[in-house]
Amino acid sequence: MDTVNFIVMLTFACCTMAHAVATAIVAIYARYKVQYLSLAWIMGVFTMILLIITPYSASVANGHPGLLHPGMLLMFVVGTYLQSIYTFGITMPGFLQWERMWLYASPIIILGFISLVAFYPFGSLTKVYSFAELVDNILSPDLIMRIIALCMGIYYVVNIFRLPHRMAYKTTIPAYLVGYCTLLGLSSVLYIYVCFNYSPQGLCWYVGVFSALNMYLVFQTMDNMARSLPLPHIDEDDYLLDDDVDGNTQDDADARREEDFNERNLRCYHRVQHWMQTHRPAWCDYTFNRDRLCEETGINRQLMLQCLRSQGYNNVHEYLTLYRVEELRKLIKSGRLRTVTDCDMAGFATARTARLCFERIYGIPLDDYIEGKSKQN
Q1: What CA–CA distance (Å, rounded) separates 222 from 219?
Q2: Residue 356: CB partners within 8 Å, gap ≥ 6?
Q3: How far are the Cα atoms of 18, 27, 86, 247, 376 from residue 35, in angstroms, in the given order?
Q4: Cα–Cα distance measured from residue 295 to residue 279, given in angstroms and rounded to the nearest whole number
């Protein structure tokens, strides 16, 4: 085995193992939270692709595919599609659905079907090994299809930024996602260079960068999950009064425990109320949820639910919704909110959610309320 062949095989084997480990880790989390399921599938697909390619490392090392080989372009467009779609679940929660993903992948499917039916059964593909040959055959149908595939891969990378701004109002893209997209774009430039000037070493560099990017996304996802871990459980028995163990009757101990229990719930509720009233911008962000409220107030999930239920709320979601609906009403009355599409100002992710919550609480359609207040103003 020559040195180049060994390097190619080692690179593909190491990257395959890295993706396999990442798939296993994310799959464990996906059993408990569906938000990790898409990432587990994506890493699994990459693992299978690398697992299939690795045994052919000798062919990769000694091959001469020429410029814009269709096989390399197929890997490029499929890879950029898979690397881009998971980011939508970060900037647009709920976007990743099977039907929508199949629709988003339809250009690849259509292009692949046309290429398979139009060229393979009826003739050989045009092979070019220099830019002069590429220019001479630029109007060849299969070369046109390859150029379309190249543009499609670039399109999927650009969409990481384009789609959130187009489909989600006032979307905030996290800094780490900006860095990921930038590096993904640079890695795509490297791959395009390899498509035009093929070398086994260049392909190994790309596969290494490609794997590092995927691992970065996996580890960043795990880091985000770690930041939202629940606070430690607090045992209610820790709140028993010291006098209860000094010979008092059971009834006195129970009465004092009940009084302490209610006082503790009231103190926690007052703490939550004070935080909500002094941190409006935080909960007006539609990504703010129960875990964030627990983290900001220093109250664990059990005590948070307990103190809110003691004041008549069913759960944290209902509590936040009431605050956001009241904020929505204030914005409408002040004239700062004139259309339902601006409901994110009050912490609602979609206009549909705002309509449902507003009508459930106030009993009138949100659009009618906005229209009535607009006429008064």
Answers
A1: 5
A2: none
A3: 21, 11, 10, 53, 44
A4: 13
Summarised one tens digit per residue, pLDDT across range 327-338 is: 988 888 888 888
Structure-block tokens of residue 149: 């595939």
Encode pLDDT of 218-250 as tens digits: 888 787 666 655 544 444 444 443 444 444 554
Tokens representing residue 299 in the block: 């109250």
Contact 279/341 with Cβ under 8 angstroms? no
H helices of 67-140, where? Answer: 70-91, 98-118, 131-136
CA 245 remoteness from chain centre: 52
Neighbours of 10 (CB within 10 A): 13
What's the CA gap between 369 and 372, in Å, rounded? 5
How far apart are alpha carbons 164 and 160 in whole angstroms? 7
Cα separation values, 21 from 8, 30, 73, 213, 215, Å:
20, 14, 27, 15, 10
The string over 129-162, giving b where at least 16 C-beta atoms fall within 10 Å of a residue's C-beta and e elsewhere, is: eeeeebeeeeeeebbebbebbbebbbbbbebbbe
Instruction: From 102, 89, 278, 226, select the one nearest 171 (Cα to Cα).
Output: 89
Q: What is the mean pLDDT of the chain?
A: 80
Query: Burial level of 362, CB count in 10 A (0-12/13-18/19+)?
Result: middle
Using one digit for the tens of pLDDT, what is the confidence trace for 128-160?
A: 778 888 888 788 877 888 888 888 888 888 887
